[in-house]
């Protein structure tokens, strides 16, 4: 077996590679894959970038995901999120600290606990879409973004509408919208820009905004501690009562950082994935017809759990996540001690990146990968190294199950309430929005008829 220090890759100056990746991430990855294959080396982390190696081959991805924990450092690679999520965020931690937080966070976002949120997700969706105007084109992304934010505030934060709820919703909306701007978000990548020169400076404005948000979140945590109600089912309540193996519970600071992590990594991502699902089902009339038939088989007001178990609905959501995954890459791994992946060995300091986008576009795994074919998920079960929309290994997205559950319920609820048609002009292309990609702004939907009474929202909302 031949062993090479690094796979073949780009030899252009690292700054040019960095700018190319930032400007056109999808095009950059596709061009490199066409030239070098499944595995290639880049230097895309600025002037003195270490080698950054992308992997699209399932075998290599499996080796990375299952490698012993001590071979990689992960928290240090996510430093750009630190100002937003804080030092105690799950994505910033390594080793035992990461494992502790993951064990505390896992139960509320999986299994029976997760299913208790189903009716509320459906009700909130109906509430947001109740005032859609018939025969008027609109942006589905704006609606899915609003639905996703309300779900996080109600299901994760456990807040009910009131002064603090509306203040926090307004502030978070402004922050999340700002973060999607390349100019605004660039300050998180370059520490030299992180200088507080007063509220009129970009960093000063961010710090003020963050202070206002933190003030409301800490007030909510303190109130919920003082008036603890064990019968509540929201994520914050469950985290307040959770204890690790040593009997220790989370501090206020840990709770704040985990709530912000769930918000920042679970809001725009799910909203974007839903936008693509709506695009594809209205791009493919046969898919929409088959999906509508499946939804109608459950009758009026079906139980959310029965909805979430529908096979074709699940296949549609998975195929949407395959073609345009929530993130292009899984969490980067920084080599801590020499490691061999496939035919290559990597020295400490190298960055290894399982590339979700490339893995999902392999013709060997997915014939005709550019085509939207939900049936492929009915005909075959893909390994977690072939289909990995939420990453994998010990660093897979903590909210993966919840995100897919939410996605299915929102899509099903909207399609059960309205007959929609696409009113697109020109070709729809992926357009960057923060860390995700959404259908370009020329994709619009129009509500033709109401299928049910969308204003009949459950009293739990």
UniProtKB/TrEMBL annotation:
<keyword id="KW-0479">Metal-binding</keyword>
<dbReference type="InterPro" id="IPR017972">
    <property type="entry name" value="Cyt_P450_CS"/>
</dbReference>
<comment type="similarity">
    <text>Belongs to the cytochrome P450 family.</text>
</comment>
<keyword id="KW-0503">Monooxygenase</keyword>
<dbReference type="InterPro" id="IPR036396">
    <property type="entry name" value="Cyt_P450_sf"/>
</dbReference>
<protein>
    <submittedName>
        <fullName>Cytochrome P450</fullName>
    </submittedName>
</protein>
<keyword id="KW-0349">Heme</keyword>
<keyword id="KW-0560">Oxidoreductase</keyword>
<dbReference type="InterPro" id="IPR002401">
    <property type="entry name" value="Cyt_P450_E_grp-I"/>
</dbReference>
<dbReference type="InterPro" id="IPR001128">
    <property type="entry name" value="Cyt_P450"/>
</dbReference>
<dbReference type="InterPro" id="IPR050121">
    <property type="entry name" value="Cytochrome_P450_monoxygenase"/>
</dbReference>
<dbReference type="Pfam" id="PF00067">
    <property type="entry name" value="p450"/>
</dbReference>
<keyword id="KW-0408">Iron</keyword>
